[in-house]
């Protein structure tokens, strides 16, 4: 007889930690560092704070367990209110980033899966110290996760008066790992973070006591991303039902104007005439059939103002070119930031850079640097939609049409920013094949490749001239 | 001010359907078919029933919505009791497969994510008809998912007296999809299912009204997989705590013998002496430190009986060779089924086949056919740990050492069966880099490759002889 039962979210990720990127002790070190660093960056640059982040990995922290490391990450961010700390670190699917705003975090899982992995491999709780900007106290918690119930177990809680103006968060947890194999990935991650967030200062001390100071190269920070309303294009039936449930508007006309970006008085009237519903109807009185018709109409109508991108935080062509130049010392760089596009109600901006020649080594394939919401993506390159586009053999881009012959000295940087990045997995390593995004990435890389082609042709002409 | 909140599992997968394989309308058709077919196969062959599965995809089922299809899958399996049907199809993380037994399903998500995707793209409920083997009634439900609460909404329930001996399940749901692009993948999936489950009969009718009958080629079924206890090797602290909570044994000695496979009286005594805990201690009286010590000791002890594989359902070398021969018409086939190994308390068996020459076309890379628990894996090949091993340029296997020169006519089949397949993602398309599994796959492919090498050398000698 089949035994049916349900799992909590904590049990699900406990049983299937590979799904969250914790597939082996090498990856576990990398994943723990990147989840904590991404939280630290979200707590700083999304709030206009110049990030100062300290990362420490120590070995030999538990007798007779040489494979266990203590990982600590500290930031000068906005901190976490004490009432939210237990759930933030010990209840899966709990987050402050479930809004329509461009943040690195989006799942409400990262910190918790690291804590869970630490707990199941070492039995140790996580320690969190935090203080918000206006708070007069600093709070310290030691927490573990009640896996069956998916709720926090507060093992220790204390607080002390804040003497200084410190604000921020420090997270310390023990995990079983393999530092020697993880080392190159962790260093690569921090280096690429420095490229994409040149205003961040990161201090890293590794288990051999090496200290590396990734010092900020600018104090210029991009404007922080803003929270926005959904764009009506591609809004589905379910989210429309949820918006109807949550709205405080009292008429369908106001509902359309207030709950969406890009719908003004006249567009609202146009849509209402298309669905033939009274504009004064209380949105909560709409039947399921009416909501389905409204979803279908919003999806098919193509008269909306295009999605805005001013709530998104992108790099811009100058920063991309400067970053590629300083790191790669190429002969040529080009960059392109596309206008905003939209998929499923979420605006997104694709930007790309190409760097060619100079100190870049020859290779049979382009070197691809992928970023999403300013997160470096290092694993799963070949399942990423971007690789599908740029890879030389069967990719959508035929490189010889751009005068690139393999082996070639070519680096391609691609950055996608959006209020929702469609990652393939919870471990945030590759981007899914979403048609609108695939099209934009291809067009963006082609834009930059066209400049490269012009340069290669010009160079070749110069060489031919010189030979005459 | 940051707004913290929690999500239900349904909300999480609603917001992040790419994580479950529903990244675009092409993939959605494929994913819906495969999730339902895998449920049908689990309900039949895991219970000794020769599977008869009918799959129908119809178009033009909703006026003015040419992109919506009605997908129906019917099986002659064990059926679902009426009390479990609502949660089985409309509550995420609900399953009868959360046991230690080799099944295709493992997450408690597949059917629900398909229902959720159908609901958000078409607004339509799922219809389920089912009757268990001994039941005198057939039950019909129409269900939708309350996304916010992750619980079923029963829109309609009825039942009728069963006149015949019918037992099984039929699932019907509407989804937005792209049949034309999904078609080759769906057909490939059904073909490969026929290779790996030659005892199953599958009838498929597609939107053009083509009917394809994948008739069973044998009535010989492998022995159904059995549920087993965990193997003590690699048991972690958290699962040890859970076993302690659930056990009805009253002494540590009995706990070790009863709750694990591979531990008898003498091994139990040995372990108890290593941890220096009284063998009569009630397991529920163990402190956290004692459980951690026990977990560490179980992990490091290497005197356990090796994991059994007789609860696993593998193909065997004859079936693999027969399958490759009949489908590919090669010049040469070899196959190897490895002995059982274990990772994190789960036994697993790797089997591989190579087919060479004959009707196989030349290619710069091997054609890789991947299977896990008798599920064909079609997507994300390049992020699968198996591809990392066999790919010609930088894979772990240097093919020229086996006399294979590219381009070559080579097909490699790899099948992993386990009580837990470590998929990289909820969409079950590629296998994660688990060190124990990676090692076994490499050794298994090498075993088969060695036979290929001997064949190629022998053929070359015959040719050289003939030329003299
Ligand atoms: N260093 C930090 N500073 C401030 N807040 C933090 C910090 N780390 C975590 N948090 C808070 O805890 C929440 C949970 O973090 P967690 O990493 O688990 O999820 P997330 O970042 O929201 O999403 P994701 O799973 O995609 O990382 C965050 O949403 C944030 O509110
Ligand atoms: N055709 C079927 N016949 C019998 N039982 C079924 C059938 N389809 C679904 N079920 C039952 O419903 C449960 C939920 O199915 P679902 O596909 O959502 O999860 P699963 O198969 O357990 O795991 P996975 O997410 O990996 O597929 C199954 O565990 C099984 O008990
Ligand atoms: Mg996070
Ligand atoms: Mg299933």
What's a quick, concise take on this entry?
The structure is a homodimer of 468-residue chains. Chain A is 33% helix and 22% strand.
Walk me through this protein's architecture.
Two copies of one chain form a homodimer. Chain A is an alpha+beta fold. Chain A has helices at residues 9-15, 25-42, 85-90, 110-122, 179-196, 237-246, 252-259, 265-275, 288-300, 317-328, 385-390, 435-467, and strands spanning 5-6, 52-58, 68-75, 94-95, 126-131, 137-146, 151-161, 168-176, 201-205, 211-214, 332-337, 341-343, 346-356, 367-372, 375-377, 410-418. In chain A, the strands form two sheets. In chain A, strands 7-6-5-8-3-2-9-10 form an eight-stranded mixed β-sheet. In chain A, strands 11, 12, 13, 14, 15 and 16 form a six-stranded mixed β-sheet that branches. In chain A, a hairpin with a 5-residue loop joins strand 5 (126-131) and strand 6 (137-146). In chain A, helix 2 (25-42) packs antiparallel against helix 4 and helix 2 (25-42) runs parallel beside helix 5. The longest helix of chain A has 33 residues, at 435-467. The radius of gyration of chain A is 25 Å and the shape is globular. Chains A and B meet through strand 1, helix 1, strand 4, helix 4 and helix 6 of A and strand 1, helix 1, strand 4, helix 4 and helix 6 of B. Bound molecules: adenosine-5'-triphosphate (2 copies) and magnesium ion (MG) (2 copies).
């Amino acid at each position: 007889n089949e035994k049916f039962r349900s799992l909590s979210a904590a049990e699900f990720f406990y049983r299937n930690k590979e799904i969250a990127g914790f597939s082996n002790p090498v990856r576990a070190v990398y994943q723990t560092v990147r989840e904590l660093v991404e939280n630290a960056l979200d707590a700083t640059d999304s709030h206009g704070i110049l990030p100062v982040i300290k990362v420490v990995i120590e070995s030999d922290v538990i007798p007779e367990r040489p494979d266990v490391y203590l990982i600590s990450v500290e930031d000068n961010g906005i901190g976490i209110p004490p009432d939210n700390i237990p759930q933030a670190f010990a209840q899966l699917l709990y987050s402050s980033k479930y809004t329509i705003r461009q943040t690195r975090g989006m799942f409400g899982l990262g910190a918790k899966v690291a804590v869970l992995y630490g707990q199941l491999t070492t039995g140790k709780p996580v320690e969190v110290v935090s203080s918000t900007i206006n708070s007069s106290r600093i709070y310290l918690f030691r927490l573990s996760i009640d896996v069956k119930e998916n709720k926090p177990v507060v093992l220790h809680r204390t607080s002390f008066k804040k003497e200084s103006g410190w604000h921020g968060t420090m997270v310390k947890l023990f995990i079983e790992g393999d530092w020697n194999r993880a080392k190159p990935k962790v260093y690569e991650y921090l280096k690429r973070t420095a490229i994409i967030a040149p205003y961040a200062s990161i201090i890293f001390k590794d288990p051999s006591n090496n200290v590396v100071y990734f010092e900020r190269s600018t104090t210029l920070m991009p404007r922080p991303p803003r929270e926005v309303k959904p764009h009506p294009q591609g809004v589905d039936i379910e989210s429309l039902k949820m918006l109807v449930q949550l709205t405080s508007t009292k008429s369908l006309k106001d509902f359309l104007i207030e709950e969406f970006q890009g719908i003004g008085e006249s567009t609202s009237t146009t849509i209402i005439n298309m669905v033939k519903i009274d504009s004064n109807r209380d949105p909560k009185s709409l039947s399921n059939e009416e909501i389905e018709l409204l979803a279908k109409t919003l999806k098919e109508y193509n008269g909306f103002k295009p999605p805005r991108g001013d709530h998104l935080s992108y790099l811009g062509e100058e920063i991309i070119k400067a970053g590629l130049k300083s790191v790669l010392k190429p002969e040529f760089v080009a960059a392109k930031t596309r206008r905003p596009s939209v998929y499923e109600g979420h605006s997104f901006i694709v930007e790309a850079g190409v760097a060619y020649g100079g100190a870049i080594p020859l290779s049979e394939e382009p070197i691809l640097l992928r970023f999403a919401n300013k997160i470096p993506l290092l694993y799963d390159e070949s399942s990423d939609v971007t690789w599908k586009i740029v890879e030389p053999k069967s990719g959508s881009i035929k490189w010889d049409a751009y005068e690139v012959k393999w082996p070639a000295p070519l680096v391609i940087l691609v950055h996608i920013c959006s209020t929702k990045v469609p990652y393939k997995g919870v471990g945030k390593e590759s981007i899914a094949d979403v048609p609108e995004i695939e099209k934009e990435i291809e067009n963006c890389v082609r834009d930059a490749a066209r400049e490269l082609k012009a340069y290669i042709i010009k160079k070749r002409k110069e060489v031919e001239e010189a030979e005459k």
